[in-house]
Design a protein that fits this description.
Main location: membrane
Strand order of the largest sheet: 1-2-3-4-5
InterPro entries: CRAL-TRIO_dom, CRAL-TRIO_dom_sf, CRAL/TRIO_N_dom, CRAL/TRIO_N_dom_sf, PI/PC_transfer
Distance between the termini: 55 Å
Largest sheet: 5 strands, mixed
Protein name: Phosphatidylinositol/phosphatidylcholine transfer protein SFH11-like isoform X1
Keywords: Golgi apparatus
GO cellular component, one term: Golgi membrane
Oligomer: single chain
Order of helices and strands: HHHHHHEEHHEHEHHEHHHH
Number of helices: 15
Radius of gyration: 33 Å
Structural class: alpha/beta
Number of strands: 5
């Protein structure tokens, strides 16, 4: 049968393209989510792993992660022994406090009322793709909030949001930005906040949240902008600073009512509500702080992250659910030029194999001809033998 090389080459090329697309999609997502590793930091991370292993500590897979271990190392100034103690303390707290259950099941009572008395929420991303958290601290009605939920409930709510940020918001922002994202930008509007705002319940809530963030979710803040800070807040701020470590304080910017230029350097106005000088209104959901808004609400990105969580890697399921990673908002694959370059190399290999197949076919045809020739000689010898046997003897 004649070998149709042109047809095979076209088919091979297409098959290679499809295979490369699947490989590069998986590779791209894995690279983005894992991020780059600094060789020097990698040595510290490995030393921390070795110390944990030698001490017999059990480190769950979800925390045996370069960036997670690095956060605790930074938290303790790269002191490996102190980082190990902080990490084990976090694991103990998670177990005793039931953090996994809180992340999965906890819900505040009267959530819509809570939003009214406590205007807050995640709203878009900053100029580097990090999630932006906004809170109108000066409009918080603490006593009304405590009529709906306890201080312990609000602490659990904060934990649930931290877990969502680590497990959903950061990965989603990473895919949208096409680079590893592991910190957020926070904006607090403190207009009207002063010493009289720092009541006993407020102090209890503030210190509880601050302790949790500092000890169990370290190094997840990129920058904090405190805006509309009046003279009364400045007095309060001198007290609050005592509760914060030097690393956190270095990330905080306390600004008055002329904050827009500084804020716009970090966040595009399109991702800021009008009360911060931005252009967004979110009128369809009742205001910018009424609902989560960001890459983590993109259904395509959410489906990809679920796919990765289920399979441990990206698998193209577009044939069944219509999802294509290339169609994800803000998420692009390698360029066609790169794909074509790789495909050409692969095609050359396939062409070489096809030539070998042609050569093998020629050799087999030659062998077949030789076999037929030998068989013909054997038949002639058989006939000669029969003829000799039939001749009369002397």
């Amino acid at each position: 049968m004649e070998l149709k090389r042109s047809s095979l080459s076209t088919s091979s090329f297409r098959s290679i393209q499809e295979a490369l697309k699947t490989i590069r999609r998986s590779f791209t997502i894995k690279t983005i989510l894992e991020g780059t590793h600094n060789p020097k930091d990698e040595q510290f991370v490995q030393s921390l792993r070795d110390l944990l292993l030698s001490s017999g500590a059990q480190l769950p897979d979800k925390f045996d992660d370069y960036h997670t271990l690095l956060r605790f190392l930074r938290m303790r100034g790269f002191d490996i022994v102190k980082a190990k103690e902080a990490l084990l303390s976090m694991l103990k707290w998670r177990k005793e406090f039931g953090v996994d259950a809180i992340a999965k099941d906890f819900k505040l009572n009267e959530y819509e009322k809570v939003k009214k008395y406590y205007p807050h929420g995640f709203h878009g991303v900053d100029r580097n793709g990090r999630p932006v958290y906004i809170e109108r601290t000066g409009m918080v009605e603490l006593m009304a909030l405590l009529n709906e939920n306890s201080i312990d409930d609000y602490i659990k709510y904060h934990i649930s949001q931290q877990e969502k940020t680590l497990n959903l918001r950061f990965p989603a922002c990473s895919l949208a930005a096409k680079k590893h994202i592991a910190s957020s930008t926070t904006i607090l509007d403190v207009k009207g906040v002063g010493l009289n705002s720092f009541s006993k319940p407020a102090r209890e809530l503030f210190t509880g949240i601050q302790k949790i963030d500092s000890n169990y979710y370290p190094d997840t803040l990129n920058q904090l902008f405190i805006v509309n800070a009046g003279s009364s807040f400045v007095v309060l701020w001198k007290m609050l600073k005592a509760f914060l470590d030097a690393r956190t304080l270095s990330k905080i910017h306390v600004l008055g009512n002329k904050f827009q230029n500084k804020l716009f350097e970090a966040v595009d106005p399109s991702n800021l509500p009008e009360f911060l000088g931005g252009t967004c209104t979110c009128s369809e959901i009742g205001g910018c702080l009424m609902k989560d808004k960001g890459p983590w609400t993109n259904p395509e990105i959410s489906e990809i992250l679920k796919n990765v969580e289920r399979n441990g890697e990206y698998r193209d399921e577009s044939s069944s659910n219509g999802l294509s990673i290339g169609e994800c908002s803000g998420l692009q694959e390698f360029t066609d030029e790169e794909l074509n370059s790789i495909s050409k190399i692969m095609l050359e290999e396939v062409s070489a194999l096809e030539r070998c197949l042609d050569d093998s076919k020629t050799i087999l045809q030659d062998l077949k001809s030789k076999q037929e020739e030998i068989e013909s000689h054997i038949e002639q010898l058989k006939r000669l033998t029969i003829s000799v046997n039939k001749s009369p003897s002397d």
